[in-house]
Amino acid sequence: MTFHTRLHAALASKLMKPKLQPDPFGQRPSVLRRRMTPSLLALLAAGLTITATSCKKAAPAAPPPTVVVMDVAATNAPASAEFIGQLDSPQNVEVRARVEAFVDKIIFTEGTEVKEGDPLFKLDDKPLQEKLAAANGSLAEARAALNKYEKDVARLTPLAEKKAVPQQDLDNAIAYVDVGKAAVLSAEANVQSAVLDVGYCDVRAPISGMIGAKMVQMGELVGKGSPTLLATISQLDPIWFYCNVSEVDYLRAEADRLRSGKHIEDVPITLILSDGSAHPEKGNVIFVDRAVDPKTGTLRMRAAFANPQRLLRPGMFARAIADLGVRPDSILVPERAVAELQGKNFVWVISPDNKAVQRPVAVGRQIGEKLLITEGLKPGERIVVEGLQKVRDGLTVKPMTAEEIKAAELVAKAAEDAKAAGAKPTKE
To answer: Which of 74, 157, 223, 379 would you call most buried, defined as having the most Cβ atoms within 10 angstroms of its Cβ?
Structure first.
């Protein structure tokens, strides 16, 4: 006998048993009424609840969610290294005022190409011309004095030989000649300095390149106390790309380069601009610093790019991708299969018993619509590529490939078409 059968029997016997009470008229006890006690009601309610629960059928379990999976396979992927840096000119020349003067003319056009020697500014040189004239006068005076001293020596030399004049007079005359020569040299130096100052009033381009905005205005006093910046000229073709390469990235890039057998100067570099476009001209590495900076743990690197259209400008940020050949046994997965959470990347791996497992992965560069997985996956594993929002760690799923889902959809559509054709009424 089961528990439920015994419980019902006990309840029935307790209900059917009459409760005898004494007769108030002295007669024998008689059955007055059947009384339901609280304990009996509780027992009856429990029995009914257990009976109802045992009779109710369990709800069917929900089917596992369907997800689209793919098999991870190793393939040959292009090996490359990517670096972020900034463009700069090989020559950024600051044009400064080298004398104190007022700006008289501004001859160039801002933001245009200038050639070496082109006039840029004209400073007021009238005060400097006066200084040059005074220097020339001092030079003429020094030369005249020297001429007199030399004639005195020539006149006193024969007289001193005949003892007609004291030897001291001849010695003094010879000393004056030396003083006169020194005065001439000093005067000539003053003249050359004045000529240079006058020449500095004619400010010309020291190199060929693109000139920026003017930093002074007409009539402004420049060169007082320190050289005043007038404008800056930058050489734009070629242009340089500077970046700081971490020690780990440098070692990985060197390993790929050695595997490909290329010299570092022969590695082609592609420049990706901030809008995602690629610079049409390939570059090459022209400098790698001798040591790692101990403060940043990075290595300074420079690459050169041809810039005939002057599209690239100093200060622009860009990415440089070095082509290091082919990397065998690489794992590429669709970008949509990789999820990011709190700065970390992971994929959903399907175990042999169809359970989803969250797996952290290390992501490399993007190749087309796929991502290079450097760590975390092995060939032969299955990952979820569609339906990531349906899974959670440890959940049993129904994995299907894209081909299987497409075939199932075709079968379902064919069945619907056949059903619709059979339900269509025939024409009489």
So the answer is: 223
